[in-house]
Amino acid sequence: MLQPTPTSEPVSASEPGAPSGSWRRPASVPSLPEIHRSLPVAVGASWWRRLFAFMGPGYLIAVGYMDPGNWATDLAGGSRYGYALLSVVLLSNLMAIFLQGLALKLGIVTGRDLAQACRDQYSTPVAMVLWLMCEAAIVACDLAEVIGTAIGLNLLFGIPMVWGACVTSLDVLMVLWLQHKGFRYVEALVVSLILGIAVCFGIELVFAHPLWSDVARGLVPSPRIVADPQMLFIALGILGATVMPHNLYLHSSIVQTRRFAGTRLGKREAIGFAFADSTIALAFAFFINAAILIVAAAVFHRSGHVEVAGIQEAYQLFSPLLGTAAASMLFAIALIAAGQNSTLTGTMAGQIVMEGFLRLRLPPALRRMITRLVAIVPAVAVTARYGDAGVAKLLLLSQVVLSLQLPFAAIPLLMFTSSRAKMGEFVNRLQTRIAGWCICVLIAGLNAWLVAQTLIHWS
Predict the structure, then answer these.
(1) Percent of the chain scored above 90 by pLDDT?
(2) Continuous segment of H or E residues that includes residue 274
(3) Rounded to an integer, what distance in angstroms lies between the CA atom of residue 391 and that of residue 142?
(4) d(CA 116, CA 321)
(5) Cα→Cα distances 448→95, 142, 408, Å
(6) What does the alpha-carbon distance between residue 459 and residue 456 come to, in Å, rounded to a whole number?
(7) For 228-269, what is the HEC assignment?
(8) Which of 80, 276, 352, 365 could be joined to 31 by an S-S link, Cβ 3.0–4.6 Å?
(9) Which residues contact 184 (CB under 8 A, 6 or more apart)?
(10) What gap in Å lies between CA 165 and CA 387, rounded to an integer?
(11) Where are the alpha helices (DSSP H) in 82-211?
């Protein structure tokens, strides 16, 4: 049975089942202290009520796997190769479930998020390098989200891209207001937007009439993916754009918003419930990413439009090819919802990284405004100077930066959760460590190849 613990103090190493430590520095003050351990788990509640108490953080993580940065690769894969790359979408989602499971376990067991763990373990120069790389990745992810929202506003309402990018700054006020009312309100907004995206693409699937037998075959990996260099390039783009490094930092922190018991049983149950939350939420992300690719295959590939890769081009073709104006409108609505959802979580990730690596305590409004402006300023500047062509290149550049950063988040996470001194009885099992290193090596190798090919293409 779960028992509530005080909200003002993190779980100490003296509690039953706590790991012995061996960190270079003492435990940090928790990130996002205004919401840390703020949601109680009912004592003596049923299994279903306890599961519901832990539902929420996974959906904040899931939005990073369906953000506008993923849309271009899904559209390109579906329009050029039909349903063949669905297996890559499935593989990337399974890898995401694995890595997010490690992130939530780190937060629950040690009371540290990934940024704090890096700062507490490594020397100051190493920690500062990791911080700078992480900030660059968050800015890159934010750029994709800001640009995606701006494109959606431009397509649906005709708002100029520059002003659309500025509108995304309003999420700072929204998050502050919702967190003041309670973190559950933030989670409710995110879940509502995810459901809105799912409904939009569910309707698009009805319009598109995909061949479901071909969809099923597309979920099985094909040797053609490796044999065809162009197909492999898009496949690597899907992998690189799906697993987001900032989500690992975010998940390890917000999972600590639940006030679970610090005992062995309490932590073990918290890990189980949090993993169920994460897996269910990422299943929604898989549905949406797969739906984008399936719709692109059914609409563009089937009609011979095999070079569709841009969001604006897809929007313009949906209605003529499907014979209904609602198709393009639903696409734009889903894009706005995905962009706005991702800016909410990206801003929170920026706070966590700043507080975890720098131990810098600023008023919540100032912290969020700094994080948002770092992404908005370059997006607005490039949009104003170079227009749509510059925005497309900036969107591509953001995915390259994310690809470079991912191993530097995933490898420390795997090392920390594989250390018995830090995790105690919750240390990764041998098979988990083997699977983790295989995934990290695969991601690092594929992303390095993707970055090299991108640079060759640009040159």
Answers:
(1) 35
(2) helix 264-296
(3) 13
(4) 50
(5) 17, 22, 13
(6) 5
(7) CHHHHHHHHHHHHHHCCHHHHHHHHHHHHHEECCCCHHHHHH
(8) 352
(9) 39, 56
(10) 12
(11) 86-110, 114-121, 124-157, 161-167, 171-181, 183-208
**Greatest CA separation for the chain:** 66
Closest CA to 392 of 380, 383, 400: 383
Amino acid sitting at position 238: I
Q: 327-339: b or e for each residue (b if 16 or more CB lie within 10 Å)? A: bbbbbbbbbbbbb
Cβ–Cβ < 8 Å for 120, 112: yes
Q: What are the tokens at 63?
A: 């939005």
Query: Are 149 and 167 spatial neighbours (Cβ–Cβ below 8 Å)?
Result: yes
pTM (2 decimals)?
0.87
pLDDT tens digits, one per residue of 289-342: 999 999 999 999 988 888 886 777 888 888 898 888 888 899 999 988 888 777
Query: What are the backbone angles phi and psi of residue 258, rounded to the nearest 5°?
Result: -85, 135
Tell me how far CA of residue 439 lies from CA of 3, 55, 446, 449, in angstroms.
36, 26, 10, 15
For the chain, give the number of residues.
Answer: 459
Q: Residues near 24 by Cβ (< 8 Å), separated by ≥ 6?
A: 120, 121, 122, 123
Using CB atoms within 10 Å of the CB of residue 220, give its burial: 0 to 12 exposed, 13 to 18 middle, 19+ buried: exposed
Question: In the predicted model, what is the mean pLDDT of the chain?
Answer: 82
> Does the pLDDT value for residue 405 go beyond 60?
yes
Question: Is-contact 375 142, C-beta < 8 A?
Answer: yes
- How far, in Å, are 79, 83, 324, 325, 327 from residue 320 at the CA level? 16, 22, 7, 8, 9
Q: In this predicted structure, what is the pLDDT of residue 316?
A: 85
